[in-house]
Specification:
11% of the residues are buried. The chain is of the alpha+beta class. The chain has a domain of 106 residues: Sporulation related repeat (Alpha-Beta Plaits). It is 44% helix and 15% strand. The longest helix is centred in the first third of the chain and has 34 residues.
Length: 238
Amino acid sequence: MKHPSFAIGQHSPGDHPLSRLQRGGTLLGFCVGLLLGLALSLLVALYVTRVQAPFVARDVTRDPAEDVRETERNIGWNPNAALGTGAPVAPISTVPASAAPATPPAPLATPAPAAPTAAADPLGDLARAQLDQARANAANAANAANAASDAPERAATTARPVIFYVQAGAFANPEEAQTQRAKLVLMGQNASISEREQAGRTVHRVRLGPFDQQAAAEAVRDQLQAQGLDATLVHVQR
């Protein structure tokens, strides 16, 4: 059996004008709904942005005293107290940074230059000390001998006129006598060197004078002793 075929000029069920009209209406309705939704969303957005938020007081000014009280309440507030950490929080300082005194930086300490150290020479120091002591002993012995030799002259001063000398040392070495005289010259004293035979050897005496008055000679002697020199008063017959 042959299936019936559509005649030329007839439409298939899918190409019926009613079906095309329904599809066109559905698409148009979708577009119209989309446009209406966009317009409605735009209107809602404009309304929300222009209308003020509810529960907000208008034209309300905050009292400055209230701000001060709130700041005082917040001093020492610990935001971690509710967490139970136990870590202390330093209170917030209300002193402005400009009011804090500026501490100038401490100057850098400059290291002092090391003093040059001289090489230790204990043997040389000991030898020099012994030599100085020996010279001092010899000078004292010479002064004592001179004083003993001049004792008869001092004993006869009451009967005969005398002159006075200040003796600043007696040395067996003439160079030491010259050195002692140079020291006295630097101190402003005019000294002379005289020689005398004593115990078979020549002694070089360093003396200042002569002085006619005993008081003047004693003053010079005291001045030399104050400056660390051994000096004795000597009486000599005119």
